[in-house]
Specification:
- The complex is a heterodimer of chains A (431) and B (296).
- With 431 residues, chain A is an all-alpha fold.
- Chain A has 3 domains: 280 residues, ABC transporter involved in vitamin B12 uptake, BtuC; 74 residues, Arc Repressor Mutant, subunit A; 52 residues, Iron dependent repressor, metal binding and dimerisation domain (Diphtheria Toxin Repressor, domain 2, Orthogonal Bundle).
- Chain A has 19 helices and 3 strands.
- Chain A has a 3-stranded antiparallel beta sheet.
- In chain A, α12 packs across α13.
- Chain A is elongated, with a radius of gyration of 32 Å.
- The mean pLDDT of chain A is 86.
- Chain B has a single domain, classed as ABC transporter involved in vitamin B12 uptake, BtuC, CATH 1.10.3470.10.
- Chain B is built from 12 helices and 2 strands; from the N terminus they run αααααββααααααα.
- Chain B is globular and about 85 Å long.
- Chain B starts with a helix and ends with a helix.
- Chain B is mainly alpha-helical and 296 residues long.
- At the A-B interface, α3, α5, α11 and α13 of A face α2, α4, α5, α10 and α11 of B.
């Protein structure tokens, strides 16, 4: 706790630089990466991150300098080259995009490793620190580095802000963008350039191998919560910033812990929570909705079966056996037990081990379901001109989702029909 | 002798990776191979912590199981959570790789792995770790025996399962209609890829495994499309890669694994330029044909 307060108070100047740097890098990479994610180019981002390595090594070999501007220029050039090569190979050969991505990624990275080891072995005086690009060097960020990264982050956000509408169109409907006369080629160039730039700065904090996570994981997390691009960008940016904060806090308290992998871990954690629990698109809420729907459907089907038995006067004293129900309508055995349980909990039926009886409340509910089924069948024959033998399956599904409002409209539209197309009476509220 | 051992080990690894890579490329799963090669890292570290050494069978199998688990995770994210496939791959492998690096840093004293080795391997040290039969009969480097064993396993698996792999690769629907389990072949194949990745990890590192998995088959695929020649040409390119990479590394005094990936890229570039030139020749034939027709 003491440490947390110390960390948040920004009293340690070194921790201050690292934290501000990782937070802003994380945020800008996440926002730019959201577009890569939406355009389904996540893995190209991964490839570019790896492909930056030879650019950094070469620019060091040529200039013998480690200034961020020079290394970044080299990084930009080789990142761009890799992207063009990926597109060129996919277009001009029979190789599929995944193969050309993997090919460019691994070969460029290999060249980078070869050059880096060559530099190390040749023993040039100030080569130390170049290999930090592999896993990021957040912890050793200097104030000068920070200024450069902040400038880049500001530039990235400015470009996103200026071209927001155009990029949005490019991400969701590139064909339409082209028809409406936008300079799609130039826009793509700008978007790709800021992506490469975001990657080139991002590798400072997490390294080339994990860079893909900084681009796409926040976007994937944000996507589960919202349908709006603007909200998604804000959420992704927040996730990127938060994980930068967590990563630098962990490496502040445990100095031998690597910052980059912890940033990625916290990002993945955020994404996992989002993918599992987000209310609309989350996996668990979706599974719950599915199981609720299933329960609703089988219990309503059971009610209908009971109603049919009653309608055919097969019930003398109000009691039916499970076997009789099973003969009217097929249920898987576990479905039948589940439906019985649900219905007796809601006092729609009374049941002992073998016999079932509809209650007054259950009868009303059963009438409602049968009514909806028959009204819909009526509607299909009257308005859609479908034949009477075609309409049953459709009504079987729609009966579970018709709301009272639609029911009213149906009745009004059809003028209170007495019977359905199969001549069965439509049960209104009282018999 | 040291150089010979290095080239021989590298060749066996390159051929193993290449043969499996052919199927990866044909199944459009190249990036899944990439993901597996990163994701086995935590498996290797954990198995190492439990068993205390890197060269035993349970450790290899345990680590390879993590690779198969990766493909399951990717499928889950993609199919169940409706996340697009490229993002599922990216998120899964970065997460597992980060976990691996964190584990290495947490147990630095106990794990004989470091971050550099993870990325580009230590094939230069292969000749130093020799295997002895009994007291003092030297039978060559340990890594050579292990990777040789894997190569034999892969070749026999490809021969024994040739038809199953073929049909599930090219026409999974037809395979399903015939009652062939595509899931069985998928997981068996992924298991082999994971195992090969784990074995190659120490020698060539995580990312350069990918170069060996993808580059030789990609180059061979430009030249030929029939499966059998494809496998042969890939194996040949794998050996070229090993030999060329070794001498390139000697010349530049750099990482052997890095040089091998570079050389694999050179081979690919050569094949690409060659096929481009061929197709140009063919398309330049067309005007001549037209002229001849005009002459008639």
């Amino acid at each position: 706790m003491q440490q947390l307060i110390e960390f948040l108070s920004f009293s340690d100047p070194n921790a201050r630089v690292v934290t501000i740097g990782t937070v802003f890098i994380g945020m800008s990479a996440a926002m730019v990466g959201s577009f890569a994610f939406l355009r389904k180019r996540s893995l190209i981002g991964d490839a570019i991150a790896h492909a930056i390595l030879p650019g950094i090594a070469l620019s060091f070999m040529v200039t013998q300098s480690k200034s961020p501007v020079i290394l970044m220029t080299g990084a930009l050039i080789s990142g761009w080259l890799a992207m063009l090569l990926i597109e060129g190979i996919s277009k001009n050969s029979k190789l599929k995009p995944d193969t050309s991505i993997g090919l460019v990624l691994s070969v460029f990275f290999g060249i980078g490793i070869l050059l880096l080891t060559h530099i190390q072995h040749s023993g040039a005086g100030n080569q130390a620190g170049l290999d930090q690009f592999l896993f990021g060097k957040a912890a050793s960020m200097t104030f000068d580095d920070l200024k450069a990264y902040l400038a880049v982050a500001a530039l990235l956000l400015l470009v996103l802000f200026l071209f927001y509408k155009e990029f949005k169109l490019l991400a969701f409907n590139p064909e339409f963008a082209e028809i409406s006369g936008l300079p799609v080629k130039n826009l793509r160039f700008v978007l790709s350039s800021i992506t490469v730039l975001a990657i080139a700065t991002g590798i400072q904090s997490v390294g080339v191998v994990l860079m893909a996570a900084l681009l796409i994981t926040p976007a994937a997390a944000a996507r589960s919560w919202t349908e709006s691009l603007f909200t998604m960008l804000i959420l992704a940016g927040l996730a990127g910033a938060a994980s930068g904060l967590v990563g630098s806090y962990i490496s502040y308290t445990a100095p031998n812990m690597p910052t980059g992998p912890w940033i990625v871990m916290s990002l993945s954690f955020i994404a996992l929570i989002s993918i599992l629990f987000a209310p609309k698109k989350g996996l668990l809420p979706k599974l719950r909705r599915q199981s609720e729907n299933r329960k609703k459907i089988i219990s309503e089907n059971l009610l209908k079966a009971l109603y049919h038995l009653r309608e055919k006067k097969l019930i003398s004293d109000g009691w039916v056996t499970r076997d009789q129900v099973g003969k009217t309508r097929e249920f898987a055995s576990d479905e039948m037990s589940l439906a019985l349980k649900i219905l007796s909990k809601r006092f729609f039926i009374i049941t002992d081990k073998q016999n079932i009886r509809l209650t007054e409340k259950g009868l009303t509910e059963a009438r409602r379901v049968v009514r909806l089924h028959r009204l819909w069948e009526m509607y299909l024959t009257e308005r859609m001109r479908l034949k009477a033998d075609h309409i049953h399956p459709n009504a079987e599904t729609i009966e579970h989702i018709i709301t009272p409002e639609i029911e009213e409209q149906l009745i009004a539209e059809l003028g209170f029909p007495e019977v359905d197309p199969h001549e069965s009476p439509i049960p209104y509220s009282k018999e | 002798m040291a150089g010979f051992y290095i080239i021989l080990t590298a060749s066996t690894i390159a051929v193993s990776c290449g043969l499996l890579g052919v199927y990866l490329v044909l199944r459009k799963m190249a990036m899944v191979g990439d993901a597996i090669s990163h994701a086995v890292l935590p498996g290797i570290v954990i198995a190492f912590l439990i068993s205390g050494s890197r060269d035993n069978v349970p450790m290899l199998i345990g680590a390879a199981a993590v690779g198969v688990l990766t493909t399951v995770l990717i499928e889950l994210l993609h199919k169940k959570a409706n996340l697009q496939e490229d993002a599922s791959i990216g998120i899964t492998f970065t997460w597992l790789f980060a976990l691996g690096v964190i584990l290495i840093s947490s147990f630095t004293g106990q794990v004989d792995l470091d971050q550099e080795c993870v990325l580009y391997g230590e094939i230069a040290y292969v000749p130093l770790d020799l295997l002895y039969l009994g007291e003092d009969i030297n039978v060559g480097p340990r890594a050579l025996w292990i990777s040789g064993g894997v190569l034999v396993l892969i070749i026999s698996a490809i021969i024994a399962g040739y038809k199953g792999l073929l049909i599930t690769t090219f026409n999974p629907d037809y395979a399903a209609a015939l009652g062939i389990s595509t899931a069985f072949w998928h997981f068996a194949f992924m298991g082999l890829v994971s195992l090969t990745t784990v074995v190659s990890f120490e020698s060539v590192g995580a990312i350069l495994v990918v170069a060996l998995l993808i580059a030789p088959p990609a180059a061979a695929y430009l030249i030929t499309e029939n499966l059998k020649p494809l496998l042969w040409v890939t194996a040949l390119f794998g050996i070229f890669t090993a030999v060329g990479g070794y001498y390139l590394a000697l010349w530049l005094d750099g990482s052997i694994a890095g040089a091998m990936a570079t050389f694999a890229g050179v081979i690919f570039a050569g094949c690409w330029v060659w096929t481009k030139a061929q197709s140009k020749k063919k398309s330049s034939d067309i005007p001549q044909v037209v002229n001849k027709l005009k002459d008639l």
